[in-house]
Amino acid sequence: MVQSTNIWANIRREWGDDLRPTVASLNNAANLLYRLKPLNLLPEIAQRGYWPTVILSRNNKPVDIEVLDLHFELNVYPPLVPGPLFDVCKFDAECETDLVRLVETLKGSLK
Fold first, then answer.
1. How many angstroms separate the CA atoms of 21 and 68, rounded?
2. How many domains does the chain have?
3. Which of 25, 45, 42 is nearest to 33 (CA)?
4. Which of 15, 54, 87, 88 could link 29 by a cystine bridge, Cβ 3.0 to 4.6 Å?
5. SS3 99
6. In which domain, by residue range, is 90 found?
7. Closest Cα partner for 67 from 76, 79, 55?
8. Considering the entire predicted model, what is its pTM?
9. Residues 13, 19, 24, 28: what is their CA dihedral angle, to the nearest 10 degrees?
10. Domain contains 4
11. Using one digit for the tens of pLDDT, what is the confidence trace for 29-61?
12. Would you say residue 6 lies in a domain?
């Protein structure tokens, strides 16, 4: 997906040039961000995960999305789910139906 605007402009990125996520995870994250922007669901923070992934999160919301090379993982934490652990929902990055489900699930989690 090619877009003309910088989708990352208002997202605080917490990684240096030497510890960047993979190109594939950055591309998948940008694809998701373009879907979230019209819904006013852009994350506030993007961090590099343990693996060279992208973790998208919002302040004060017990939800984050880990963006990997081939899929997304939506992590929902207590109190939105019974604790003490968290729920992980996996979505294929190449499947349009999964991307739509991810956005809809995220919308429901951020109400």
1. 9
2. 1
3. 42
4. 54
5. helix
6. 12-109
7. 55
8. 0.88
9. -20
10. no
11. 999 999 999 999 999 999 999 889 999 999 888
12. no
